[in-house]
Structure formats: C-alpha cells, structure tokens
C-alpha cells in the first residue's frame, strides 16, 4: 500500500482528492467535504459519510445530482457528531438536510446526536437508514440487523436526482426509504484487506477458502467455505439476495456487481455475466446495470452483489445526469492546483481552561488515560479478533489530544470531564466516540467543585442510561455495558466514595472478564458471532480500567 504515514493516510488522500476535482472543497473545522458551489435556496441538501477506505463512496459522489457534502471518518470509523452537525449547518439551504446513513452502530449514533443538535438550531432534518446486507439479517429481529453496504450508492444517486429536481425533504426521504426496502446485498472475500501501517491482514484466510457474508470494514464473514467457481459463488450470493427480497418471475431489478478494492474489472465483468444468466434463468428482468468498484474495503479481494427492485420513477432518477466525479461517465474538470500539505484532516481541538479542582480527579483521569494510551496495541488486537480492529485507534485519536499535565495540575472536575467528552465526540468517531463521549458528558454535567458519592452515582447512572438508550445494548450483549452496569449497581449500594469505587472496580473487572464467554448481540462483534467467543470486549475492559483508576485515586487521595 502506498503510504507516507498511517497517521496522515486519510488526510494525505483528501488533499489529493480535492486537488483532482473541480467542485469539491475541504472544510477543516471539524472536517468535512462539500460542493464549492452552494445549492439553490430552498433545495434539499444531501449529507452522507462514513469511515474512509470505501472510496469512491462517499466523497466521489459529491456533485450536482448527488451529494451536497460528505463527512469522512478515519479508516473504517464513522465520522463524529460534530462533523455531521457542522457540515449540515454549512450546506443547509432552507429546504432541509437529508442524512443518508449506513446501518453501523457508530454511524447511526453520531448522525442521531447531530440531528438532536440541529433540532436545537432550528434546521429541519430527516434520514434514510440503509440496511441491505442479508448476511447479518436475523429472523428474530435481535442485534443491529442488516448492515448498510453497497446499496448506499443507489440511495445516494436516486435521492440526489430527486433533490435536484426540487423534491421536498419528505418526498426525497420517502424515495430513499423505498429504494432501501427494495435493496439487498451480499459479499464474498477471496482475501482480506490490510489497514494502513499494519503488518497483518484484517483476518487470516487460507488460500483454499473464501469468506461468505463479509462486511465493508475488513471484518470476517458469517461463514467460511472451500473455494468454489465464480458461477457457484454468484449462485450463493444472488440466491440469498433473491430470497430476502422475495423476487419473483417478472420482477424488474437494477443489478449491481461491486468490487471491494482488490478485484480486477475482468473478474467483476465475469461475475456480472454469471449474475445475468442466473437472473435470466429465474425470469427476473434486468433494467439497469452497474459494474465496478464503488463501495470498497481498502484493498480487499472480493465482490458484492446488489439487487434493487425498481419502478419507472426510480429508473428515471437513476438515469438523471450527475457531475459527481466517482460516478461513471463524469466529464473531466479543470485542475485547480494542490493545497498545502498540512491543511487536510480535522483540526478541531476542544479548549481547556485552568482553575482549581480536586487532586483526586486529576490523578484518576490522568492515570486512566495513560493506561489506555499505553495499552493501545493490546486493545487493537482484541478488537481485531472480535470486530474490525479500530477500537484502539479510536481511543488514541481522542485521548492523545488531552493535556495530561494540565489535568494532573488540578483542573476543575467539570473541565476535565468536558475535555474528555469533547475529545471523544470531536475526534474518535465510530461507536466508541459516540458512547464514550456521552458517558463523560454525564460526569461533566453532574460533577462540580464538590465531588460526593451522590454526584458520582447520578453521573454514572445517567451515563449508563444514555448509553443503553442510544445503543440498545444490555448486560450480556458483550459490550462496555457489561462492565458499567455492575459498577453502577455497586456504587448505588455504597456508603462512601472510597468503598464505592473499590466495589465498582471489582464489579467492573468481573463484568469485563465475563464478556470473553459471551456471543455479541450488539456492535460489530455481533457480525462475527461465535468467532468472537473467548475474546474480552475491549470497551468493557477500558471501562474496568476506568473504575480501577478511580479506586486507586480514591484510596491514595480521599482515604488520607
């Protein structure tokens, strides 16, 4: 992989993207891409986004007739809520802002938080949740459900054309949801991807086996089978898609064969030929086709098949022109030169002011942050086994921005927790950015100059309630909640801070340890099922460290 530094990989790529296109501009604070030319007043603005590594989705689809702006996250990590909030405000033209969101927990949470903030700003918003991946479809309705994958670009194209023709926010959103309800996808990997700066692939796959049901974040699939012919692979993927959509003889579809980044066009066209024959045998009519690498997983060798049941209105919108550079047959644009190397990448840094606070909070938070930063390789390894390997990176992205010296020098408790919350919401992205940001926000709200057991209990209980309300996870789902919930219960039974934090630390440690034998029902670990058994959830482990640091600080400072 071509790379200068893993830390600047996304920023360096954004720099080149903007330099090579005519209608895309970078807004550095807090970091989003938008059209250079504003859309007409009264028109619906379309905002999408997600982890980098899926290009040309989403950035390549900014342009007239498609997206107005895009919020890029770190590799395979959702954008954060502040990016989405600021981008939405910037592109709003009075007709409302439509968010197109893939069904991954981090994306859903951060776009949700942004819409709450936009409501306070008086900006009308709506969203379309794309959930097309049949590999994660569960008949019991539990878990996060179908992931959002390749059908996202179909939604972006149809909604973009509908907004371009002057449709209302309600009408454009309804069209997007119609496309989603009639779309299904499934993917296969012949080989895993490798993240920038990593010496190991995202998972191990023997040469004589393939992964069925993989996602677009480098995670493992839902089953591993011996290598088979292209014809048999297409039958496996398309069969699942046709069944989920309940397609019947005489139905009309858009057929989309998508490369995952490391697949040659010859292979993709081979797969499309097999798909066309498969659908013809079932007397399902292909009305439109799309073949190419549009929704990638870095350099993964593999492909996905997407079928979309279509009608005349959707076909007219699909055929409408667009200037988006990543769409087929886009005309070349004028070269605008290259921006300064250091001008790309989010640069928002929360402000922290100095004043008095307890030695206790400074010792507590600084020791916890240092441990998390030092243990990043171990956290990444755990997440690589259970999910997609970005957890440790997200922790560092947020926490390395904190001034630990200032925290140790007795900043006010509220200032410390506000800084940590803003660091997560503004820099981490993904599920962890949203959930950890909400957790620390509750401590910021509840803790003032005086820290007592009642305030700690309120903060912890409100934090737990916020996380479970937004993410839906409960004890036993193999998430951070498995450590937090027993710790909160221990605090609520305590009679002093010192004994309370000691009991909470013990309870959180036991809760985190219990996740190693659980099968995940929430988060990306839920997509790999039994493969994550035996692996401790990294979020639960970090929260156990949090309460352990509190206990140590309370013992050394408050017990004196």
* Percent helix range: 40-55%
Which regions are unreliable across 5 or more consecutive residues at pLDDT < 50?
347-357
Q: State the total count of DSSP E strands.
A: 12
For the residues shown, what is the average pLDDT? Answer: 90
Structural class: alpha/beta
Shape: globular
Spatial strand order of the main sheet: 1-2-4-3-5-6
Largest sheet: 6 strands, mixed
Strand content is 5-15%
- Tally of separate helices: 18
Distance between the termini: 55 Å
Secondary-structure topology with pairs:
Layout: H1 9-20, E1 24-27, E2 32-35, E3 45-52, E4 69-75, H2 81-91, E5 97-102, H3 105-121, E6 125-130, H4 151-164, H5 169-181, E7 183-191, E8 209-212, E9 223-226, H6 230-245, E10 252-259, H7 265-281, E11 285-292, E12 301-309, H8 312-319, H9 359-374, H10 376-386, H11 391-399, H12 404-408, H13 413-428, H14 430-446, H15 453-471, H16 481-493, H17 497-514, H18 538-558
Parallel strand pairs: 3-4, 3-5, 5-6, 10-11
Antiparallel strand pairs: 1-2, 2-4, 7-8, 7-12, 8-9, 10-12
Helix pairs in contact: 2-3, 3-14, 4-5, 6-7, 9-18, 10-11, 11-13, 13-14, 14-15, 15-16, 16-17, 16-18, 17-18
């Amino acid at each position: 992989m071509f790379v200068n530094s893993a830390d600047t990989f996304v920023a360096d790529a954004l720099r080149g993207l903007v330099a090579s296109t005519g209608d895309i501009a970078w807004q550095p604070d807090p970091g989003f891409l938008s059209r250079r030319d504003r859309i007409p007043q009264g028109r619906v603005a379309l905002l999408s986004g997600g982890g980098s590594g899926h290009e040309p989705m989403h950035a390549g689809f900014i342009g007239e007739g498609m997206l107005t702006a895009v919020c890029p996250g770190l590799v395979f990590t959702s954008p954060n809520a502040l990016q989405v909030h600021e981008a939405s405000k910037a592109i709003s033209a009075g007709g409302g802002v439509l968010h197109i969101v893939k069904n991954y927990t981090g994306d859903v949470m951060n776009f949700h938080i942004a819409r709450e903030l936009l409501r306070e700003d008086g900006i009308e918003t709506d969203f379309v949740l794309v959930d097309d991946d049949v590999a994660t479809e569960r008949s019991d309705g539990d878990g996060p459900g179908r992931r959002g994958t390749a059908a996202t670009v179909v939604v972006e194209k149809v909604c973009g054309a509908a907004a371009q023709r002057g449709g209302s926010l309600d009408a454009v959103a309804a069209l997007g949801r119609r496309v989603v309800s009639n779309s299904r996808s499934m993917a296969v990997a012949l080989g895993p991807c490798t993240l920038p700066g990593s010496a190991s692939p995202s998972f191990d796959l023997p040469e004589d086996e393939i992964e069925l049901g993989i996602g677009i974040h480098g995670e493992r699939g839902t089953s591993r089978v011996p290598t088979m012919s292209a014809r048999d692979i297409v039958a496996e993927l398309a069969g699942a898609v046709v069944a989920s959509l309940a397609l019947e003889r005489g139905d009309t579809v858009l057929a989309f064969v998508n490369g995952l980044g490391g697949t040659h066009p010859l292979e993709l066209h081979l797969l499309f030929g097999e798909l066309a024959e498969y659908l013809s045998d079932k007397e399902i009519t292909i009305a439109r086709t799309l073949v190419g690498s549009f929704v990638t997983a870095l350099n993964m060798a593999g492909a996905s098949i997407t079928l979309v049941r279509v009608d005349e209105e959707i076909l007219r919108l699909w055929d409408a022109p667009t200037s988006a550079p990543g769409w087929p047959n886009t005309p070349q644009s004028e070269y605008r030169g290259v921006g300064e190397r250091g001008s790309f990448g989010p640069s928002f840094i929360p402000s922290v002011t100095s004043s008095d606070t307890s030695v206790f909070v400074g010792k507590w938070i600084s020791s916890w942050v240092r441990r998390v930063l030092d243990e990043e390789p171990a956290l990444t390894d755990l997440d690589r086994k259970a999910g997609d390997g970005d957890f440790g990176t997200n922790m560092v992205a947020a926490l390395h921005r904190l001034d630990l010296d200032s925290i140790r020098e007795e900043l006010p408790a509220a200032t410390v927790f506000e800084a940590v919350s803003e660091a997560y919401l503004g820099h981490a992205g993904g599920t962890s950015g949203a959930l950890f940001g909400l957790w620390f926000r509750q401590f910021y709200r509840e803790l003032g100059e005086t820290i007592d057991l009642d305030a700690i209990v309120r903060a912890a209980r409100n934090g737990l309630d916020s996380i479970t309300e937004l993410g839906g996870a409960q004890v036993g789902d193999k998430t951070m909640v498995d450590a937090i919930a027993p710790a909160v219960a221990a605090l609520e039974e305590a009679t002093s801070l010192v004994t309370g934090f000691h009991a909470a630390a013990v309870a959180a440690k036991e809760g985190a340890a219990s996740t190693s034998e659980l099968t995940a029902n929430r988060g990306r670990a839920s997509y790999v099922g039994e493969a994550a058994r035996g692996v401790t959830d990294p979020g639960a482990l970090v929260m156990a460290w949090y309460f352990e640091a509190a206990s140590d600080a309370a013992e050394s400072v408050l017990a004196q």
